[in-house]
């Protein structure tokens, strides 16, 4: 072969190899709005979002009994990686066309917000497919439709686990659509599976102990890999956790702790206000009316070892709710044509509850109080040493740090609705 032809063929081969490498990076986008996705398709969608958006990260929380990955998606507009990307894009646009660029809205600096994390989990009970579909709809709204929800993303960080029980979820597709528990065999028993929503270490001992029951609590608290993985990520973010939401079906209700007792927590009025905000938003959207109340009272039974009670009672999240999606008429797996309507109506309620959570427990109020108190304490020290009555100049100088601190806080504070 002539030398020229050899060089040409080498160049072609390099182009083909580079094209193949590029193709491997492309992750196809599954249809998340109009069908029930399998676990593999859900992970593919999460990978697609991670590759597309700089404010999205994926976390592998652990492995299930059948070696499936339990994944969480983190959506954080104020992450350093995203803010750098936004600044680069802004600079590029300025160089391209200075007249067409308008200043971008200021984002909140990372790490300065205190409690600003919204945590949503779904798919704890394998047969409740609609809860997984609604969680995916929330992810879709916060990523692919992020411009519509910029004000929400600017204030809050979201961590969403769309399938908390992957083994059981997959089992419902291939074997038994009514399966509820996970798939780990029970030691010294012929039965398989534990109800992950009875396996958390909060009044766990009061739960059902018969291994054959659908609500079996497990041999000990956190005996299951899924609940241990959830425990670990919740502990990691406990200082920043503002609002925890657990999605289930199909009782059409928004409920707050406690599940283990009919007694109400001290802050039940705050929790009810949050639940009513979601209920009213959904009713205004399409007329569907959710029930609101405590878990034990609405279900008319005691539920021990649940994740919501654990998050509220042990992790000490200020706000925690259960949202039971529609509907008894449609069952745990509504038909495909109902997935998108239920997903969108649920998002209206969830979005309103997130906004209300920020207003109820505004992160900046505590920060402002702490900084101002520190400034005033520092200002009082020279006052005790100097004689303010004989000379007013030290009083003015002593108060200046506090005055400046208050002015800075007023200028930098994110507005909080009344």
From TrEMBL:
Domain of life: Eukaryota
PROSITE patterns: PEPTIDASE_M14
Record SUPFAM superfamilies: Zn-dependent exopeptidases (SSF53187)
Active site: 324 (proton donor/acceptor)
Domain Peptidase M14: 35-357
InterPro entries: Peptidase_M14 (IPR000834)
SMART domains: Zn_pept
Requisite cofactors: Zn(2+)
Entry's family note: Belongs to the peptidase M14 family.
Protein's name according to its UniProt entry: Carboxypeptidase B-like
Native species: Bactrocera dorsalis (Oriental fruit fly)
């Amino acid at each position: 072969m002539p030398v020229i032809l050899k060089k040409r063929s080498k160049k072609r081969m390099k182009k083909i190899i580079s094209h193949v490498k590029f193709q491997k990076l492309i992750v196809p986008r599954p249809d998340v709005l109009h069908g029930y996705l399998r676990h593999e398709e859900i992970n593919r969608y999460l990978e697609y979002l991670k590759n597309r958006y700089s404010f999205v990260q994926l976390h592998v929380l652990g492995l299930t009994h059948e070696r499936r990955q339990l994944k969480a998606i983190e959506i954080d507009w104020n992450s350093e990686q995203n803010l750098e990307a936004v600044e680069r894009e802004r600079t590029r646009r300025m160089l391209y066309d200075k007249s067409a660029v308008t200043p971008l809205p200021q984002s909140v600096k990372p790490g300065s917000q205190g409690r600003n994390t919204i945590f949503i989990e779904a798919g704890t009970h394998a047969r409740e497919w609609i809860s997984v579909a609604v969680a995916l709809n929330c992810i879709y709204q916060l990523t692919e439709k992020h411009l519509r929800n910029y004000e929400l993303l600017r204030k809050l960080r979201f961590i969403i686990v769309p399938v908390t029980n992957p083994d059981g979820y997959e089992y419902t597709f291939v074997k038994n659509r009514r399966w509820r528990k996970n798939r780990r065999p029970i030691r010294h028993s012929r039965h398989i599976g534990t109800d992950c929503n009875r396996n958390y270490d909060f009044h766990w001992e009061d739960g059902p102990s018969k291994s054959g029951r659908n609500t079996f609590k497990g041999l000990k608290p956190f005996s299951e890999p899924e609940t241990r993985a959830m425990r670990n990520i919740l502990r990691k973010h406990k200082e920043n956790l503002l609002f925890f939401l657990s999605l289930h079906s199909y009782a059409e209700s928004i409920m707050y702790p406690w599940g283990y007792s009919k007694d109400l927590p001290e802050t039940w009025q705050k929790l009810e206000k949050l639940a009513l905000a979601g209920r009213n938003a959904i009713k205004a959207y399409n007329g569907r009316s959710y029930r609101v109340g405590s878990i034990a009272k609405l279900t008319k039974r005691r539920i021990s070892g649940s994740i919501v009670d654990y998050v509220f009672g042990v992790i000490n999240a200020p706000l925690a709710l259960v949202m039971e999606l529609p509907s008894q008429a449609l069952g745990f797996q509504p038909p495909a044509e109902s997935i998108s309507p239920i997903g969108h109506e649920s998002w209206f309620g969830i979005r309103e509850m997130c906004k209300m959570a920020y207003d109820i427990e505004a992160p900046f109020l505590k920060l402002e109080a702490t900084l101002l108190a520190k400034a005033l304490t520092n200002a009082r020290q020279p006052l005790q040493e100097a004689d303010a009555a004989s000379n007013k100049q030290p009083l003015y100088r002593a108060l200046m740090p506090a005055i400046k601190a208050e002015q800075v806080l007023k200028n930098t504070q994110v507005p909080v609705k009344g």
